[in-house]
Amino acid sequence: MKHLLKTRYEARAKIIKALAHPSRLLIIEELNQRERCVGELTEMIGADVSTVSKHLSILKNAGLISDDKRGNSIFYSLRVPCIMQFMGCVEEVLSVNAKKHNAILKCSGR
Amino acid sequence: MKHLLKTRYEARAKIIKALAHPSRLLIIEELNQRERCVGELTEMIGADVSTVSKHLSILKNAGLISDDKRGNSIFYSLRVPCIMQFMGCVEEVLSVNAKKHNAILKCSGR
DNA sequence: ATGCTATTTGGCAAAATAGCCATGCACTAT
DNA sequence: ATAGTGCATGGCTATTTTGCCAAATAGCAT
Description:
Two copies of one chain form a homodimer. Chain A is α+β, with helices and mostly antiparallel strands. A three-stranded antiparallel beta sheet of chain A has the order 1-3-2.
């Protein structure tokens, strides 16, 4: 692969990788509703706080979310709303996959 | 996290993970132009055929591409065009990140 | 200052991913 | 039948990612 092209795809992949985890998808979806602090997200996810904190730092590092420290808490919010449109496409893939699956079941006589 | 929700995010994450690799992004973009066989993609990527073949199987497994065997070759094509819209959003994130980066440079006097 | 709450960071082990080589398989050609 | 081409799979190692615990940091309250 040409170097310029490679660099470009690597940059994209870094962002997409940041989205490629169930907990981080939940975070994105919650932050799309409204800003949230780490404690709230931790409760929703049900993992260790440190784990959630690391997920947040991955998302922040990718430029997907931003943080705002107020008092004792840090509030995170979604920085790039267009991400949510993407989720629509992902759902479409899932539904196409489900249809195909059903078709296979039918053809094999169930 | 509630089980139902978790399953849902896991399904989404699997699809996004399939996209989260430079070579696979190149494949997606190429297949968006037209169908391609493994040999062509391998040449563009510049990795071992077996590696490319595995990338293709990941994309296929996620339901993103489909294959069509004709003669001695297997032609892959993009199954869900909406994926490309998503790339637009990723580019937007990159450009927002770049702007922020420039602003930081300015503020630090460069 | 001391303690309390909210969050991040370092360290580590387990799990997942990536990429190469060698091999196997299917189809084509001779 | 034999050889050649195109692709997939198994096996293996190196790298990356994940998630917990323990410890550090920062702000608030007393």
